[in-house]
Specification:
mainly alpha
Length: about 300
Amino acid sequence: MVIKRHFAPHRIFWYVRYELIFGVLSVLFAFYLHKSGYLNVGVSLAVVGLLATSLAIFLGFRNNASYSRWWEARTLWGTGINASRIFSRQILASVHSAIKANSCSEAEAFNFAQEMIHRMGAYAHALRIHLRNAGDATEYSHLLPHEEYIAYDKNQNIPNMIMLKMAQRIKDGVREGKLGQFDPISLEPQMATIQNWQGGCERIKNTPLPRVYDFFTRIFLFTFIAVLPLAILPAMKENLWLASITCGLIIFVFSIINKSGAVLENPFDNKVNDVPLTSMTVTIERDLLEMLGEESLPKKKFPENGILM
């Protein structure tokens, strides 16, 4: 996620390099036609205005849809962060009650709580890797029992399997006296929230924005870039250099608007404009380990060069 408020000009132009190159070629071609006498009567500005309006409608829809996907992804992860905290708090409160009721020893209760809360942290890391298709499972190996960590190698959806193990261990906790008989009832809503967090993210990842909008937006944009100089240059033939600059500015603005939506379309692609999953998973792990009273916490992630991953 980009945090910085200002962007380097060369990076901005690099984002829209293909549109700008095509725009320069279109202006040069229109300039040549005008100088050769083939463009005495240019394309009507009304036609170009109609095309610009159509393009603006497509750009507006696509950008709104792209930002909605990005914001939903961020909202889902915000929900997941809170759900993991609530789940861990409930586990700690439940084992504390079990200690007071003398249904298990303090060491047994702490070991069970530590196992469950560590597994919750591992789930967050596994979900990040699952969504990005990038990363190494060793990043969360320290949070799982070694046998369990090795067993997940054969699974396709590791976060889902971690949640299954979590549910099984909750039942074990009740049977072993580390949790109360009614604790699974209070824990289940948070378990459901956590799985809905994963399901919502998978829906965004596996359902792209309808390709028809992306395709026709690009077609309309390049058509507009090709036609614009044929209308602007004849209309401003007294000052062709000013006309060329005007074309360049209009092309640049529409291209940037188009690219602004494109870069937000897939929030889990592990690119600079995506939702900062790495930072949020570290936040989850830090918060959960702190609840356990552990002092060795992972380092908090900070933006590097204005970018938070």
